[in-house]
Amino acid sequence: MSCPQACEIPETAQFSLAPSEELSRPCSVLCWDLLQTSVQEALEFPLPLRYMLLRLLPKPDGGVGSAGWSLPAPIRSDFPRLSVSVPGEAESVGGLSSRSIVLTYQEHLGVTYIILNEDPCPRMVIHNKCPIPLMLKETVKETARTEVYCRPLPANCSLHHELYHHFSSFPECRQKEMLPTLLLKTTSDHSSTDWTDPIDINCPGTQTCGVAQVVFLPGFGCLYIDVLYEKGTLVLCLAPEGGLDAVIHQHSSSRKASCRVLLSEASVVLSDDITNPSGSVELLRLTLTKLFLSLAPAPTSLPQEQGASDLGSAHISLVEVYCSNLQIDNQLYNRASFHFPVLLCQDQRNGAEPGGGPWSSEANPTESPEALEEFKRSCFLQLRMRLAGDRCNAEEVRA
Questions:
Q1: pLDDT truncated to tens, each residue of the chain (399 aa)?
Q2: How distant, in Å, are the alpha carbons of 330, 332, 380 from that of 343?
Q3: Alpha-carbon torsion 154, 158, 160, 162, what sign?
Q4: Which PANTHER family does the protein's record reference (predicted)?
Q5: I need a labelling partner for 210 at 20 to 30 A (CA). Which of 68, 117, 346, 388 fits?
Q6: Is 326 helix (H, G, I), strand (E, B) or coil?
């Protein structure tokens, strides 16, 4: 494991990649950076050693070389997927000072293909709320198949990270295995070079009785650590003694779930399976056309009850159901003494189809907020319900 400073980049040729919408064809790479220059027999990791380092190109109005390089990403067939943390500007990445890039490896007819995409679900996010830079080291349980680098953590900075434990086991599922412990140390020239005690990250949330993990950081003092999962990402928060409130607030902050469902058509059938032993007989069929279901946190614009606290309103969810057309068919119409094929339907005035034309993956009301509001106004069935924080009690129902 290489520590404590980041690797040195040799003087080699560099190449740039345009954004995906501008890149019409793959970019050929004719050379690789070889970080090992010693004799082949003395190498711990035999050749070929291929690494790729990434960085974001500076903006036209930014300084040259303002963004640093990522840690070396090994290019090997036994590492088909890696999540690379590329340094960036915190203002442009939602408070994070890095971008998480998925690097996938494929081979075909002797040609190596490297594909880079934005990572929609990073493995790990680290928030360093300390006023000093830190160094993070992973305790590797098994013999490493490649160099494992320490992760520099700048002061008051948030960035992405992926453990060797994660990318070395992909695509195997090792969820039941314990995650490795982590070690921290300061990087100041005048501070101690000792590492902290091992930090357990297998227990999401604070430890017993709502108290965060506390480790002693040599040369600094007590360090409070909070671990939680957010949308599949392991979030690690490091805070000094005075920043304990930030850790507790992060752990106690509400997680707001939201989803949208669009159904072009949905049917519910009422069947008789008791009085007809020969087979099931359909009695009624309810058909819903252009159904829109939504679950989201209640916006602050909705009227709140007098005296409701901000914390209580943050846990309120809004359920919306909109239907463009509804029809109940009499499935016994062909039998004796049943004269009405349709029991209930919407009055389609002027022969126009409610809610516009048919839906498709390219044309639906979620394309824009204006189209969605127009669809909602055109629906004859509109239901809005506010759920309390326990998701069991309805506070308000509108139709």
A1: 555 445 665 556 566 777 766 655 666 766 554 555 555 555 565 555 678 888 887 655 444 444 588 898 988 888 899 999 998 865 544 478 888 999 999 888 888 888 888 888 898 999 998 888 999 999 988 888 888 889 999 988 899 999 988 888 887 765 567 888 999 998 876 666 788 999 988 876 554 445 578 888 888 888 888 888 887 888 898 988 877 666 556 555 545 677 888 888 888 888 888 887 777 888 888 888 888 888 888 775 444 444 444 444 556 788 899 988 888 888 777 766 666 777 777 666 555 555 566 777 667 787 788 888 888 888 888 888 887 765 566 666 776
A2: 6, 11, 17
A3: positive
A4: INTERMEMBRANE LIPID TRANSFER PROTEIN VPS13B, VACUOLAR PROTEIN SORTING-ASSOCIATED PROTEIN 13B
A5: 388
A6: strand
DSSP structure class, residue 205: B
**Quick check: is 143 in a domain?**
yes
**Type of residue found at 370:** E
Summary count for the chain: helices (H), strands (E): 4, 19
Reported as type and span, the H/E element at residue 244 is helix 244-252
Domain range spanning residue 135? 40-252
Residue among 117, 119, 149, 150 at smallest CA distance from 133: 150
Residue 230 lies in a domain: yes
- 386 found inside a domain: yes
- Torsion angle of alpha carbons 85, 89, 93, 98, nearest 10°? 10
- Strand (E) positions, 333-389? 342-345, 381-387
The verdict on whether omega for the bond into residue 171 sits within 30 degrees of 0, i.e. cis, is yes
Q: Which residue do the tokens 């409701």 mark?
A: 308
Given the structure tokens 């409610």, which residue do they identify?
354
Distance CA 149, CA 6 (A): 7
Residue 333 lies in a domain: yes
